[in-house]
Amino acid sequence: MTAFGFEVLGEDGRARRGRLTTAHGTIETPVFMPVGTAATVKGMTSESVARTGAEIVLANTYHLMLRPGAETVDKLGGLHSFMDWEKPILTDSGGFQVMSLTNLRKLDDTGVEFRSHIDGTKFLLTPERSIEIQNLLDSTVTMVLDECTANGVDEAAAAESMKLSMRWAARCREAFEQRDGYGLFGIVQGSVYPDQRLESAAALVEIGFDGYAVGGLAVGEGQEAMFSVLDVTTPALPTGHPRYLMGVGMPDDIVGAVQRGIDMFDCVLPTRSGRTGQAFTRRGTLNIRNARHAEDPRPLDPESDYPSVGNVSRGYLHHLFKAKEMLGPILLTTHNLHYYQELMRDIRGAIEQGRLDEFAVEFRAQQAQGDIEPL
Q1: Beta bridge partners of residue 122, listed in sequence order
Q2: Which of 75, 79, 74 has its CA nearest to residue 38?
Q3: What is this structure's pTM?
Q4: Would you call 195 a catalytic residue per the annotation?
């Protein structure tokens, strides 16, 4: 049997080059996880996601409990079989989605009672039920149920929310069924308040988890505030466990967070942007809908080593989006996901070479150059 474990293979400042071993395969870190909210990375087959270099994907407890239902997924063999993805899967507990249902929810120590955004059906999501659902889904990495506080919350409200999340975390730990190769992550909360972040981290470490996430960021607080929270939080987390920054983010956010000791990331940006015509490149982002690309025979990113997208011209992609052909979003999503995986590969290499800070300077300088000149 395979034990769930994390090994730090090298360090560069506070950055770590690591390897996470699970029941469904190993993950090289720092790692980016494509988001497959409803058991699908939109517009992509599992095979095409794997070809971009992805080693783990994220699915969402809230959405899957509503449709098709955790019990249905279980009957169909669990998420890995259901979505034809043999590699690791991390499931978000649903706390973030519940935060967005302010007018449809009632929250107390027991859990959160809410109405489905689909048909208004009432549900009660407790820490125990969240763990049960994720177990039925056969999640490789299970996340504790937490309350994700909104940006701008005052200190007293943030403290009350954080303490509730810590009580829920203890109940999740007790409810989790320990299995070889499977892990449970705690989530640090406390908004932008350093003392609360430290209190939350200490509470989670005392409970004991297989990994530790930093939640409640990327909700509008800005990069400077996010980095300040990480500067306080990551040193308070165990060095021998993976650290996951939830919902982040832009490439520059990822580089800065790795410099501050984060190992795992997820975000909808590469897929959502791909569906709306925005491409990520080494020189920043571009909008393929712009007229300047209409007759351009060059690839999106001349420096990319991904031939199946690299051989397609900007002019063709522009045409696909203008014609509203579904292939356009598929190709741009594929490109963006591969860009993110190339970025993580380059970050891992820079840590191994002991030059992450230099890489970060070069990366930001190249991004600042902007797109290649039009023909």
Answers
A1: 115
A2: 79
A3: 0.97
A4: no
In CATH, 5-267 is 3.20.20.105: yes
108 has catalytic annotation? no
Q: Is 3 exposed, middle or buried (0-12, 13-18, 19+ CB in 10 A)?
A: exposed
Q: How far apart are CA 346 and CA 319, in angstroms?
A: 32
Set 210, 263, 266, 296: catalytic member: 266
What are the tens digits of pLDDT across the range 12-69? 999 999 999 999 999 999 999 999 999 999 999 999 999 999 999 999 999 999 999 9
- Domain boundaries of the chain, sorted by first residue: 5-267, 274-367
Note whether 66 and 118 are within 8 A (CB): yes
Q: Residue 34: is the preceding peptide bond cis (ω within 30°)?
A: no
Residue in 92, 253, 296, 301 annotated catalytic:
92
Total residues belonging to the chain = 375
Question: Do 347 and 53 touch, CB atoms closer than 8 A?
Answer: no
Nearest to 277 by CA among 308, 210, 211, 323: 323
